[in-house]
Write a structure and sequence with these properties.
The chain has 15 helices and 2 strands. The protein is mostly helical and 329 residues long. The chain has a two-stranded antiparallel ribbon.
Amino acid sequence: MKYNSKNISLDQIKSPVKNELKEFETHFRDSVKSKVALLDKIMYYIVQKKGKQIRPILVFLCAGASGKINQSSYHAASLVELLHTATLVHDDVVDDSLQRRGFFSINALWKNKIAVLVGDYLLSKGLLLALDNDEFQLLKILSRAVKEMSEGELMQMEKARKLDIEEDIYFDIIKQKTASLLSASCGAGAASTTEDESIIKAFKTFGEQIGIAYQIKDDIFDYGNDFIGKPRGIDIKEKKMTLPLIYALNKSSNGQKRKYINYIKNDSKNKSKVKEIISFVKDSGGLDYAEEKMNHYKKLSLETLYSIPQSEYRDSLEALVHYVTARKH
């Protein structure tokens, strides 16, 4: 099916599973309820501030493309969202971030100690949801993803200290840090409706490929474009070595490389130096290279998807690939 990526909306993509997503919201609200008044208040705040819900959408679409959506599919979606939300709450503490999706983060409103405990609570609720319903395969898939996400985050922190990251290490980091949960979402969705390991494996691969493309798109956003206006430079300020920057440094002379690594190491909060780094990356073709790589993984994800029989669910997954790689924010 041919898509005009500029006109694809998330509502169109969700169409085959809109009823399931609506019911899922009730499942998720029920899964985070607590008898502790403070915790229940925080859970209500989290539920009200939900994002695009890309991961539950992936769960249900992959479930529908693999078989008949059932109760196990709802468990998979809730488990994915519980673990994802737990990692976001903990990430905001680690990054000392005061905002999430334009709203105050949990640690900004209730301080770090409570935020860490909230993240722990969400993680435990996910584990119990799986165990109470004998969803051992789902638990295995998602537990592996959480492990990989933690390793990816720690690897990124380690490399940020030395600023010696190469392209292969960058891909290792984003496979673990970003793509692993999208891969698990797709794999869990498929596993909820089929026992065919080849189909489950195909969806895990698809999720990883679209996850890598998704992260590269985020890297590109940090340098600005016609749609989001001025560059953000947030990754540079946080000393994160993203693909456009890695490419530019690898293509530069030793003198230039030392200069810009020194800027990142010692002057990453200096606006003029950050602006100079952004110009350097753009002039070196870093953004073009990153876009080329993103499109490579987009192509791979579509090739993997086409190995699955055609259905309205697969069509929506195809549309989602175009959506995440053409998004404006």
